[in-house]
Amino acid sequence: MGYVTVSAKIPRELKRLLERYGIRPGPVIREALEEAVRRRMAEELESRARRLAGKAGAGDEDVARYIREDRER
Fold first, then answer.
1. Closest by alpha carbon to 63, among 54, 72, 71?
2. What are the angstrom distances between the C-alpha of 61 and each of 40, 46, 55?
């Protein structure tokens, strides 16, 4: 897997606090971005499931059950 650099501007005070508490921004940013992507992927899958369920005549309860079953796998 290759890597790319992503930058963000933050207030000086935040940078000072990161340094003071020994927090490395890279891992924190990476985790936050990964979580944001997971959330969006889940939203997209839920939207697709609702569309497909509507076409198949399934209700919201069925969709919720399908999503739960899929998450448990």
1. 54
2. 21, 12, 15
Q: Using DSSP, state whether 10 is helix, strand or coil.
A: coil
- Output the six-digit token pair for 35: 């979580």
Full-model pTM: 0.66
Residue 34 gets which letter from DSSP? H
Q: What is the pLDDT of residues 21-61, one digit of tens each?
A: 999 999 999 999 999 999 999 999 888 887 877 777 767 77
CB 50 within 8 A of CB 63: yes
Say which residues have a Cβ less than 8 Å from residue 18's Cβ, sequence separation at least 6.
Answer: 24, 25
Q: By the 8 A CB rule, do 26 and 7 touch?
A: no
Is residue 68 very low, low, confident or very high in pLDDT (cuts 50, 70, 90)? confident
Token pair, residue 60, equals 């919201």
